[in-house]
Amino acid sequence: MCYAHSKGSRIVLKGDVPLQEIVDPAKRAAWISQQVDLAKKQYMDGINIDIEQEVNETSPEYYALTELVKETTDAFHREIAGSQVTFDVAWSPACIDKRCYNYTGIADACDFLFVMSYDEQSQIWTDCVAKANAPYLQTLVGYEEYIAMGIDPKKLVMGVPWYGYDYVCQNLSMEHVCSLPKVPFRGAPCSDAAGSQVPYAAIMKQVNTSLSGVLWDEVQKAPFYEYKDSVGQFHQVWFDDPHSISLKAAYVKSRGLRGIGMWNGNSLDYSRETAAEQQTQAMWQALTP
């Protein structure tokens, strides 16, 4: 950690707690105290609260979650000078995956929101077909929704995916439409649970031997490719690359968002192979338009 600090990095805890446990103010205070003590012992610079649990707007958890963020921020700022408290939110505030949070209250209470602009097909309400993990226009709509709520763009950090989804197609048409089995999720008839997550490094190792090579969807502004597995099934893999990420990074800059990040840094190939070095460098550079 000392080396990371010497390079200007900030190291923070990842905080998660069952929401029913923090409805009680005493239990909430105990959890916050534990996090502050742990951060001090490990020389941490703050905490990232990553809950991702269902919340109903009329529930006690709705209010308790906002209080948790506010009280955590107050405690960290008081106990650790220059500390940072952040909160992870879905790509849109529209109750994605039934996460109906008090987004404006939480944004006011912490230093910034990390918007997880990925897994945007966790609830598929339209045709059950493979799509981009983070389609360009859909991603931008999410930010405009947050901003329309009154959240300052400087309170928003865009999170982009350094991984993709590998889908087994029930049928793959000549027009590259990959039909998926119906895997319901939180009320939606279909979801990206029909596929499996694949890190960028693995995608780069496979794409050159695929049936299609890299293809580009101009509507979603995302790359994909297709291959056939050992038992003869067709697959379609959607992912983000330097091209698709640079488009989103340009929006971050022009819209005045606080910054951009990724999930996650370990998804790249950091070997000394020439191709891997070039691919990794290009992904990092895409974050800074």
From TrEMBL:
Superkingdom in the source lineage: Eukaryota
One Pfam family in the UniProt entry: Glyco_hydro_18
SUPFAM superfamilies per UniProt: (Trans)glycosidases (SSF51445)
Gene field: CTBS
One GO CC term on file: extracellular space
Keywords: Glycoprotein, Glycosidase, Hydrolase, Lysosome, Signal
InterPro entries reported in the protein's UniProt record: Chitinase_II/V-like_cat, Chitinase_insertion_sf, DIAC_cat, GH, GH18_Domain-Containing, Glyco_hydro18_cat, Glyco_hydro_18_chit_AS
Keyword check for Signal: yes
Described function: Involved in the degradation of asparagine-linked glycoproteins. Hydrolyze of N-acetyl-beta-D-glucosamine (1-4)N-acetylglucosamine chitobiose core from the reducing end of the bond, it requires prior cleavage by glycosylasparaginase.
Membrane-traversing stretches: none
Record Gene3D superfamilies: 3.10.50.10, Glycosidases (3.20.20.80)
Family: Belongs to the glycosyl hydrolase 18 family.
GO molecular function terms listed in the Swiss-Prot or TrEMBL record: chitin binding; chitinase activity
Subcellular location: Lysosome
GH18 domain location: 1-289
GO biological process, one term: oligosaccharide catabolic process
Organism: Serinus canaria
Name of the protein this chain belongs to: Di-N-acetylchitobiase
